[in-house]
Amino acid sequence: MSITEESVREKLTEIKNQYNSYRFDDQTIQHYVEFITKDKEGEERTTEDRERFLQYILSENYREVVKELKYFVIVKSKGNRYYIHSKKYRHPIMDFYLFKDKEEDIMKMILDTAESFDKIFEQGYVESEVEFPSGEVIFANFFHNSDHTDYAFEVPEDLKYKERYSINHLLGQQNTAKILSDIHGLGYVQLGNTSARIFKVNDDEIIMTNTYFEDYNEYTDEDLETEIVVPDEWELLGEVCCDVWRVEFIDQVNFNKGNSIPLDHEVYDYKKPFMGKVNPGKWRVKNYYRLMDDDNEMKAGRIPVWIKMERIQDES
To answer: By C-alpha distance, which of 117, 86, 83, 114 is closest to 97?
Structure first.
């Protein structure tokens, strides 16, 4: 193959698609064209050198669809690297290296992971469960450990930096919520740079929402279908300022078993944890925060439900 600007650009453009365009745009392709075809001062590359650089760049940026789901897609590179992409945002969310001696196991894990992502987006929420033995539930931004150096209730050290527990994506948040519940009896929901208002709807249901929905009528230019009002029977438990982008909640019984600074410690003076009394038992937690639109809910006169917590009724 003749190594010219035109031939290199043609080869690079051939592999460009929607799953590598986030890193392989026209500007980047032009940079590679110049890098391959033009020598720096005092440098003389052979045709073989240029061909080798071209093949490396083609291999690094090639993406081929392996399996397409409703919201996500699995793609692979020329090597043994596989990626899970969001169809909407195009960027890869997770990547895996396929070891030959574990090929079947890793491919199953990749497929299971992609399907788990797809399920979260299909149902529209991150789901977890947590046990409230006494029904006396404490809410906070997060609970400090006794040394005031970290979270009181944390993912085990050998797992906390694993990709499957990364809170940078929704599946990692779901896995994190599960392990914190299983080990500590802690409820955890990931939010954003915000504050959350927490209401007890009744003894079997709690919701978290934003802190400004009641003012929506005043600052919006939109014509609202109906005015947003809080039902009389709802009890405001408190508000959480999410300096750390989460809300944690735990039954008093489980809190007492942990390694947390007491709730009357001065570290909590700025943002006091607060308690709500509900029916004891196992509760299901649905986190809609990243998959909903506050404005759409408020325009329709509805309180936007970021988090819905419901006691799981006994089937017997």
So the answer is: 83
How many other C-beta atoms are found inside a 10 Å radius of the C-beta of residue 14? Answer: 10
Q: E strands along the chain, which residues? A: 64-68, 72-76, 81-86, 92-97, 126-132, 136-140, 186-190, 195-202, 205-209, 235-241, 246-251, 274-277, 281-287, 307-311
Judged by DSSP in three states, 124 sits in coil
Give the integer Cα–Cα distance in Å for 84 and 92: 5
Burial of 258 (0-12, 13-18, 19+ CB in 10 A): middle
Determine the Cα–Cα distance for residues 59 and 49; give it in Å rounded to an integer.
15
Strand, coil or helix: 136: strand
Contact present, 257 and 131 (Cβ < 8 Å): no
Highest mean pLDDT among 59-63, 107-111, 135-139, 221-225 belongs to: 135-139
CB atoms within 10 A of CB 274: 15
Which residues on adjacent β-strands are paired with residue 250?
138, 186
The residue among 155, 169, 76 whose CA lies nearest residue 118 is 169
Q: Any idea what DSSP says for residue 161?
A: T
Residue 94 has pLDDT above 90, yes or no: no
Distance from C-alpha of 198 to C-alpha of 251, rounded to nearest angstrom = 16
Question: Residue 103 burial (CB < 10 Å; 0-12/13-18/19+)?
Answer: exposed
Answer yes or no: pTM beyond 0.70: yes
Render pLDDT for 233-251 as a digit per residue (tens, 0 to 9).
999 999 999 999 999 999 9
Residue found by looking up tokens 């196992």 in the block? 282
Cα(190)–Cα(176) distance, integer angstroms: 10
| 267 closest CA partner among 143, 184, 153 | 143
Q: Residue 220, Cβ neighbours under 10 Å: how many? A: 12
